[in-house]
Amino acid sequence: MEPDHRDHKCHRPSAFQKMEGLVREMQDTEHGGVPVRSQKLFLTSIPAAFMGYDLIEWLMERLGIEESEALNIANQLCQYGYFFPISDSKNLVVKDDSSLYRFQNPYYWPWQNRPPDNVEYAIYLSKRTLRNKQRHGLEEYEIEAMSNLKKNLANKWDFITQQAEEQVKLSKGLKKADKLVSDSQERAYWRVHRPPPGMVSSLEPCPVPTRSWNGGTRTRKKTIEDCKREVELLKNSLSRTRVKVSQALEGMVQYVEIYMEYDPLITPTQPSNPWVSEDLTYWQLNSPLEVMMHRLRKSFEVMVKRVDVPTEKRVRRWALSMEELVSDPTGLQEFTNYLRKEYSHENIRFWMAVQDLRRSAQSQIAWKVQEIFDEFLAPGAPCEINIDGKTMEKVQQEMKTPTRFTFDSAQEHVYTLLLKKDCYPRFIRSEYYKNLLATGIQPSQKKRFFGFGQTKKKVSTTTAPNQQLLQQQQQSSQGTVVMCGALSKRRGSDRSLSGSAHELAISGVKETKVPHSHSQSNLSDIPYRGDLARIAKLPAVTAVTSCNQTHSNVSPVKKPSIAIVAGASTSEDVCPWESGAAEPRSRKNSAAIDSGSSSSDLSVAITEVSEKVQRSCMLTQQHTLDSCRNLSAQPAEPQRRASVSVPIQHSSEPAGSSRRKVSSFEESSAAGGSASAAAHPPSKPSAPANLSETDNKTDEKVSKTLKKSHSLLKTFTSATGGGSNAPTISVSPVMDDVPSEESSSNTRKDEKDELSIYCIQEPMAPLAEPDSESPGSELPPSEVGEMLEREQEVEQGECEGQVAQEQGEAKANDVCPWEDEETCKVDTPFVKTYATLGYL
Amino acid sequence: MDLENKENQSETIESLTKEAETLKKKLEDERQKLNDVTLAQVAERLDIINYMNIKPRRTLKGHQAKVLCSDWSPDKRHIVSSSQDGKMIIWDAFTTNKEHAVTMPTTWVMACAYAPSGNLVACGGLDNKVTVYPLSLEEDVSLKKKTVGTHTSYMSCCIFPNSDQQILTGSGDSTCALWDVESGQLLQSFHGHSSDVMAIDLAPSETGNTFVSGSCDKMVLIWDMRTGNCVQSFEGHESDVNSVKFHPSGDAVGTGSDDATCRLFDLRADKEIAIYSKESIIFGSNSVDFSVSGRLLFAGYNDYTVNVWDTLKCARVCLLYGHENRVSCLQVSPDGTALSTGSWDYTLRVIFFCKNYIFV
């Protein structure tokens, strides 16, 4: 805290110093300043002026910066009044063209002495009234200001007019050119200090006392205590152990290297960044458990039920450090579960209890301290933890005056010695953890090959740009104007106003690219539209059962069906595959699974599916437990049948396929529901969420309300947008489900009806592009794109399960590139497509 | 007698100041001994992040005056923001809907914060008070407001230290304070700055009991919340420190200052390890934040721009324009998926950007 000898009477931000330095350099024409001369404009000659682009050029050269940045700096300087446009007295804006500017007289530079007072302003205004009306007439706001001043300064008004007259007289002696210059400078000065209403002023006073113009005392006077404290601190600092800079830096670089993979602003998120795609999946996948710490604490008991399957990436992150593990509620819970299995979870429970204590209200401290002591530390406590005598002594000492930090020493002991050095490494090495890792969800692996932005490309395809798309583009170009893009964007934009040209170029590129990529990729996508939902659905159906699974080596795909049977013990029909006509298929399914287990590639894929299944189980379970249960447990047979029939009528497809689709629809509906629920954990009153849900459903223009519940929409769009058969079918099943899902309102049904109608109207050809009229295409392109990707994922999962029987069915299925990739039974063409997509 | 006393005192102050000076020199020597390499050298092996693809995603319009502060909700999509005219708005940033608008009985609400549960927000400013508002959809939020603590000068910053039950504030009276939300009791006060505290931030660790503060006395101090003692201090800035943020690793602190620089101070090496500045950056930085890996440092400036720094290479990655007035606050969302900026131009923006893989 070095003593500051600066004069604190006037606080002056250091920026002014720098600006003045720069402006002085500019004015130094002899040593390469900005060229200032009399400029000819038509027939008049304008003294002491320089041109916009000379200024920008100078700044670019002087500071080694891009044009956009130079323009920004020039505008700042202008706003502060270091120079001003000659022909525009209203706007303090610098343009990079031949418009003329003039330097302000240093006398008028801002923040020199003190802000100008009203008397000076009044003098200035009355001066102008004394002069040529045409040239010096007051603006409207100035007239208003003057009449106000007249009222407020009535007692000084004589003095003011006198001064004004004097000054006018004086100025008459000046040469014409000089007069012109000084008049303009004075005017510019007041333009800065008394800006017209609605204009931004950079000199607006800050209400914070120490930062305003007249500063006040910046630093509090030091008391003897301050000095003592400072010396104390310095002494302590001297004895502090510090590491070599190289060591510290190496540590930091390593940290960053590890975490860059988890940084959504550096490494694209899987499956997509919600802010870009409008798809909430990422958040759902990474949401914490609903069980909050305080709930845990109340009973010191963690819910045994697993309510979530974390993503693989998230699980991997837990292995980075103990801190990572315990700062993720899901991680903490898994850890606790593991330790419970080992009968050694008292340590972690103690640790959590102390964490909770630390965060408790003051009024709760006393009893919580006692409670923790009784539970964990007292001799013969029900859950006694093992700490050494010394720590125990300390705790007992602290217990006399209970605070939130009473158990810190014990907690530290438990944390570093027991948890971090013993339990944590064991956990990370354990089968339990490996299982978690293996079953973790891997959202769209393929996606990593796409940069984001890819999504847009796909959608913008050949179809006429629909409204949303247009909007989006507008937005983005607007965005650039607003955000002006990165520096590099401006490069080559040739003095255009902003980077928008660049942006446009990009979007142009996207569009031109579309033709190659889309044909095939869309082929593959479309048929699967419904599947997306389905995957999610699968899990939903099996949620109840699967959550109890121990994730043994049993093939995951099998589980769902088994689980379903069990869960819905009464009717086989509940299982989508096994129901009715689909029965043969289910057999095939299992066959596929068997073969899968033998061929490693397939099995990989299968695991994926299972992961997804589980994950979605979690989702549904967590958020819509009830409804989900209803869904899965109810013998919904008849309804389903009915629904199936509907699609069949409309589609000429074989019943079997429709069946399949039905199941997927169901899934999708559930997924939709669960997704939206997930977005707004029930614990919070989620009125908006519910609203939006209903909105979307009731509204035929579903896609327009997109923003509200994206997930839902997505399901719908996935169903409808493709224009393929699948969607149609899928919708109708949803209807059927409605009754079984008691929790969902009837309105839902209605909408779905509408939707289904909608879908039916869609072209049935599986290969059809999403056309602009279809609700799906109304989605902002990025979203659709995202969807596509998701679908692909889903498809992949789907495909895996159904590969065997479906291949004959829809040509499109064969096309799914992901599947191909996954199974490595690659159809070369697809791989190629994929590659092109990725690297374009 | 009185006079003599005073003289004695001033002597001790003088002698203490002298002692402090010599200690500082020693300290600096100690630090220099271990100063064997620069960050940019260590980071040489890393790839350059040279181009960011910028996507302005949302613009939140609704404030009628300068936005002074904002904070993300732990749910990753809501934002609370406060403005010069005394309004506090809770946004669903994802939909850009306003969910609550509260009018405070003061202007210049310079600080606002979301509680970890997401059910509570705190704010304050020129009223010198920190007030909490429980959020509920059923009734008017301002009905349940509760004043928790009062400073003797404006409150410049506040934060919930991992708990809904406590709140930590920084103030123009040059102190920081920890309050019990329920009772309004002052749990701990933190003396050590000699001028206005402008910013505070918590250590990222779950178990951490430390926080950092930056002040107009140009100092950055690290505090122990339990004891109320300052445990480490950093100087180097040439003007007011407007913003402080812990590096996600918890081993360093990033700062933004009126001297137009941002700096990185390492706690273990006990010294400044990086300075982020350019000749072309003239104006002060109001707000800084790290991406979740700590690789990127975002800084909002008085010249209406946001600079993105590569913390390791100590180079600027890109420069964002867009706001039409000073960028007063800026924060990376809790899961790192987006960046929010608030400005004196009355708006907030949510920006996404990403290293671009396609158009390299």
From TrEMBL, chain A:
Keyword terms of this UniProt record: Signal transduction inhibitor
Limits of the G protein gamma domain: 220-279
The DEP domain, residue ranges: 30-105
Stretches with biased composition (Polar residues): 646-655
Descriptive protein name: Regulator of G-protein signaling 7
Organism ancestry: Eukaryota, Metazoa, Ecdysozoa, Arthropoda, Hexapoda
Gene Ontology cellular component annotations, sorted alphabetically: cytoplasm; neuron projection; plasma membrane
Species this chain originates from: Phyllotreta striolata (Striped flea beetle)
SMART domains hit by this protein: DEP, G_gamma, GGL, RGS
From TrEMBL, chain B:
Keyword terms, alphabetized: Coiled coil, Repeat, Transducer, WD repeat
Keyword Coiled coil assigned: yes
Family annotation (InterPro entries): G-protein_beta_1-5 (IPR016346), WD40/YVTN_repeat-like_dom_sf (IPR015943), WD40_G-protein_beta-like (IPR001632), WD40_PAC1 (IPR020472), WD40_repeat_CS (IPR019775), WD40_repeat_dom_sf (IPR036322), WD40_rpt (IPR001680)
One BP term from GO: signal transduction
Listed Pfam families: WD40_Gbeta (PF25391)
Domain of life: Eukaryota
Spans of repeat WD: 60-101, 148-189, 190-233, 234-275, 287-310, 320-350
Coiled-coil positions: 3-40
Entry's family note: Belongs to the WD repeat G protein beta family.
Name of the protein in its database record: Guanine nucleotide-binding protein subunit beta-5
Species of provenance: Phyllotreta striolata
